[in-house]
Design a protein that fits this description.
This protein is of the alpha+beta class. The chain contains twelve helices and nine strands. The chain is 44% helix and 10% strand.
């Protein structure tokens, strides 16, 4: 170990009178507290080397006032992220609004479609609201669909039935606008119309049927047709005045009609084209002279209209019976018209009676002709008489409507 004398630069005086040793330091009693957490933050967020602290003037420029301990870096902690405001789905709002007013078909359908579209677009997008409105709009739209499906057909039916009545409720003598369809059937409901205006249907009779349980469609149809034919003959004293386009249409009751009012069938005059004027006439619709004419001539014209089809050579017996009926009808007509004075209707009725004499003689000869050749000749003569027999002038003079002319077969 080196001694002091060996130290360079040492003097003898130094070696002889050394300096007293410095006093020992006082014991430390006040230990400074550790730095505050902000200091740690300041240290963690200290700027990199060479970058001045915020608020420190650039290098070479005068400094400003001293910053407090820690400086502004104590406030540089990262702020919490701001929560983004959620948006509302426009389709969901529209679906809810349309569902609220879904009483129109287009409205509820659009509300349902928009609600479904809104739910599909909201899937996986939590930042957009409106799922509840879309579901509500779908529910409301479906509810309106059910309500409209139950009520609209009834409303349409009521609108279609406005101004109509069931055909079975048309009273005798009542007219209506509808005519038969292509199958010859009347509709279940008809539109009443005045008989002096355009119409295609007229109820002229209600015929009674056998009571008890419903007899079936076929039996009810046959019974109604028989009753309508009889009533037509009783009510229509002038069948030849029925227009050629008009026909008698029986309306047998259905099972439902029978359950409501059992034991009745309806009889209608119908035409394919509109016509005017009622056809249902009873005895009160005619004058005394008109009734006398119609009563006297009706059997004759009924027999004339029943001429058999075919030739006398093919159906001799049928033609003999027909000639007999014509002869009988002509005799009854001549007798019935004898009550009119000779000058009544300008002598037209008397002239008509004269023509009936020739018709009666020729018809009686045909009725007893046993030889086919004689029968054929007698029938040809009878047809010639029919061609010359016209009651149109007498009808006009008596005030009767025009009648369908009698036309002999060729």
């Amino acid at each position: 170990m080196a001694s002091v004398a060996d130290e360079p630069g040492g003097t003898a005086a130094d070696r002889e009178d050394p300096q007293p040793a410095p006093p020992a330091p006082a014991p430390v009693t006040d230990v400074p507290a550790p730095p505050a957490p902000a200091a740690v933050v300041r240290t963690l967020h200290a700027p990199p080397a060479g970058v001045p602290r915020p608020g420190t003037p650039p290098y070479g420029q005068g400094g400003g006032p001293a910053q407090p301990y820690g400086g502004p870096w104590r406030q540089t902690a990262a702020p919490p992220p701001q929560q983004q405001k959620q948006q509302m789905s426009g389709q969901a709002v529209a679906s809810f609004a349309l569902g609220m007013f879904g009483f129109a078909v287009v409205t509820w359908a659009a509300g349902l479609a928009l609600g479904i579209v809104a739910l599909l677009r909201l899937r996986g997008r939590p930042e957009v609201r409106g799922r509840g409105l879309a579901v509500t709009g779908i529910v409301l739209s479906c509810g309106w669909a059910v309500v409209l499906a139950l009520t609209v057909p009834s409303l349409i039916g009521r609108a279609a039935d406005a101004g109509t009545v069931p055909v079975v409720e048309v009273g005798p003598g009542g007219c209506f606008e509808e005519g038969p369809d292509s199958g010859g059937r009347l509709p279940r409901r008809v539109t009443p119309a005045p008989c002096d205006g355009p119409h295609r249907g007229e109820l002229f009779a209600v015929v009674p049927l056998a009571g008890g349980p419903y007899p079936g469609a076929d039996a009810a149809g046959r019974a109604t047709a028989t009753g309508c034919t009889a009533r037509h003959g009783q009510l229509d004293l002038d069948p030849r005045s029925l227009p050629a386009a008009v026909r008698v249409l029986p309306y047998p009751p259905t099972r439902a009609d029978w359950a409501a009012v059992p034991g009745w069938g309806l009889c209608f005059y119908v035409s394919d084209e509109p016509r005017t004027g009622g056809l249902r006439r009873d005895r009160t619709a005619y004058t005394e002279d008109q009734l006398t004419w119609l009563t006297a001539t009706r059997p004759l014209f009924a027999a004339l209209s029943a001429e058999p089809a075919g030739s006398a050579a093919e159906k001799p017996e049928e033609y003999r019976r027909w000639a007999h009926d014509v002869s009988d009808g002509a005799a009854r007509a001549r007798a019935g018209l004898g009550v009119f004075p000779a000058d009544r209707a300008g002598g037209l009725i008397a002239e008509f009676r004269t023509r009936l004499d020739a018709l009666q003689r020729h018809a009686a000869a045909a009725a007893v002709a046993a030889d086919p050749a004689l029968l054929t000749t007698a029938v040809a003569t009878l047809r010639t008489d029919l061609g010359a027999l016209s009651d149109a002038p007498s009808r006009t003079a008596l005030g009767l409507p025009p009648a369908v002319p009698l036309q002999a077969r060729s």
